[in-house]
Amino acid sequence: MPTQTEDLRRRIVADxxxxxxxxxxxxxxxxxxxxxxxxxxxxxxxxxxxxAGLIDRVIGRAGGIFISHAQVQRSLSDVVGVxxxxxxxxxxxxxxxxxxxxGAPDATTQNALGLAADDFVxxxxxxxxxxxxxxxxxxxxxxxxxxxxLLEQQLGGSLYEILETQYGLVAARADERIEAVNATPEEATxxxxxxxxxxxxITRIAYDQHDTPCxxxxxxxxxxxxxxxxxxxxxxxGVAASVAEASVALQSxxxxxx
Length: 258
Description:
This protein is of the alpha+beta class. The protein has seven helices and eleven strands. The chain has two domains: 64 residues, Orthogonal Bundle (Arc Repressor Mutant, subunit A); 158 residues, Chorismate lyase. The two termini are 38 Å apart. InterPro entries: Bact_HTH_transcr_reg, Chorismate_lyase_/UTRA_dom_sf, Tscrpt_reg_HTH_GntR, UTRA, WH-like_DNA-bd_sf, WH_DNA-bd_sf.
């Protein structure tokens, strides 16, 4: 059972997730009455939420508690799991496992992982949290033959860590494609946002140390909570491009594939 303080924190975070950046939650007095708690207990929780970047406290006649929704930064230069880059920025990472299954891959997944028509994939769908707030919805697929017993592992943390410690495989590189899309009603419900809100869709093929594709995933990051970062190096005129490079491509205006 959660403590009273933790229960209060979860209730406030739920209201933050249901709101929009800049919206006013209320004054301390109003919040204490709404959550039926003491001002001292409320201030303790608010201080932690402010430190985590989820709220801003403004003093004065027009002041109060406002939703901040600080952004998390995802680097495009490193192949790391969500818990690692959240921890590096001071967030507490969390996970809700939505579904797991073993099934036949669709044509896109089959091509991405280099599978035969009669091969199977392990599919794991999860919501990732930063300080209790949903930031991404991910659907990861792995070759079933390469990772027997994967679904018997603890799936709340880094899948890359499981691959390394349990199967001896390291995610050595990844090819990623990034698109701006709008949330479907189902995606919006899972991420605690409004339908058609902006999302960043990152489609990734990860390769192990033997340059064999080991993961195909589609990650949806909240546009209001995420910024992307990449370190690029100049090479000068007349110098050939290296294998590792970033590119931007315009997408046609067709519907997003599901």
